[in-house]
UniProtKB/TrEMBL annotation:
Name of the protein in question: Epoxyqueuosine reductase
Cross-referenced SUPFAM superfamilies: alpha-helical ferredoxin (SSF46548)
Keywords carried by this UniProt record: 4Fe-4S, Cobalamin, Cobalt, Cytoplasm, Iron, Iron-sulfur, Metal-binding, Oxidoreductase, Queuosine biosynthesis, tRNA processing
Annotated metabolic or biological route of this protein: tRNA modification; tRNA-queuosine biosynthesis
Subunit structure: Monomer.
Source organism per UniProt: Chitinophaga rupis
Cofactor(s) needed for function: cob(II)alamin; [4Fe-4S] cluster
Keyword Phosphoprotein: no
Length: 308
């Protein structure tokens, strides 16, 4: 005979799969003391560059109970974004997560549905869902809930599926069964550390965000990319997948099944000349639902000039 906690846990994991999530893990909501120390050191060293929002809500980042009253559980969900198709090899490169529609909207809708289903099935349940845009340490919670380990490239790696996943978090006041963390299986491999062309991976598991190609091509709002980075971007126009592409664990990556992540044809097929000729109006129309809109037309044009 299952207890209420066991029944609720099983229901949540079943519904997560039904909604299209690939993996679901659950951890007890506690303050992340070790992560707090690492985050404080990372910020103190300025590795967040101009991403000053990382300094905000420090107390909420390290304690989910400050985000949801009486929080008991942190549910972590993974959604695969590995594409079935790749870009033309001569095209300016776009990170795979941005091939399709903006994942924020896609995942937020799934989280809202899951919370509603929990309320309908279980009763009075409160919670909040987060997708990469709130003060939540998603990778730490994913690791705590047994969904993988933090690799030397700073990404969460799932032993059977690699690292091409979006991570979503649902914090709730519902007590549940908790999963156990898994070990670190990077071993002596240093492929990601060796492959990073800007030396953004300063040591295993630590990314200097202020040196990452993704930072320069997406986050950096100043129109000037430092001259010292000239010639290092390896044709990456928006984001970068180098440290994931070289990871041996990503040999297990399989194409995603989410319709919204089907690649936008222009991303697969545009040549450098096509991108350079793209008007701001056309950019807004083609990429109105794409993560590329975050860089804006002028950012994309700046990046193109820098890598040409």
């Amino acid at each position: 005979m299952l207890t209420a906690i066991e029944k609720n846990t099983r229901f949540i994991k079943q519904q997560a799969v039904a909604l299209g999530f690939d993996h679901c893990g659950i951890a007890r909501a506690v303050q992340l003391d070790a992560d707090a120390r690492r985050l404080e050191e990372w910020l103190h060293k300025g590795m967040h560059g101009s991403m000053h929002y990382m300094e905000n809500y420090f107390d909420k980042r390290i304690d989910p109970r400050k985000l949801v009253d009486d929080a008991q559980s942190v549910i972590t969900l993974l959604l695969n974004y590995y594409p079935a198709e790749q870009q033309h090899p001569q095209a300016p490169k776009v990170a795979k997560y941005a091939y399709g529609k903006d994942y924020h909207e896609v995942i937020k809708a799934k989280l809202n549905t899951l919370l509603l289903q929990m309320q309908e099935q279980i009763g009075e349940v409160s919670g909040r869902g987060f997708v990469d845009s709130a003060p939540v340490l998603e990778r730490s919670w994913a690791q705590r809930s047994g969904l993988g380990w933090i690799g030397k490239n700073g990404n969460l790696i799932h032993k059977q599926a690699g690292s091409f996943f979006f991570i979503a978090t649902l914090i709730t006041n519902l007590p549940l069964e908790y999963d156990s963390p898994v070990g670190d299986y990077c071993g002596s491999c240093t492929r990601c550390l060796d492959a990073c062309p800007t030396q953004a991976l300063v040591k295993p598991g630590v990314v200097d965000g202020s040196r990452c190609i993704s930072y320069y091509t997406i986050e950096l709002k100043d129109m000037l990319i430092p001259n010292e980075m000239q010639g290092r971007f390896q044709d990456w126009m928006f984001g970068c997948d180098i440290c994931q592409d070289v990871c041996p664990w990503n040999r297990f990556s399989k194409p995603n099944k989410t319709v919204e992540f089907v690649p936008i044809p222009e991303i697969l097929n545009f040549s450098t000349r096509d991108w350079e000729a793209l008007s701001e109006e056309a950019f807004r129309e083609i990429f109105r639902y794409s993560p590329l809109k975050r860089a804006k037309h002028k950012g994309i044009q700046r990046n193109l000039k820098f890598i040409s």
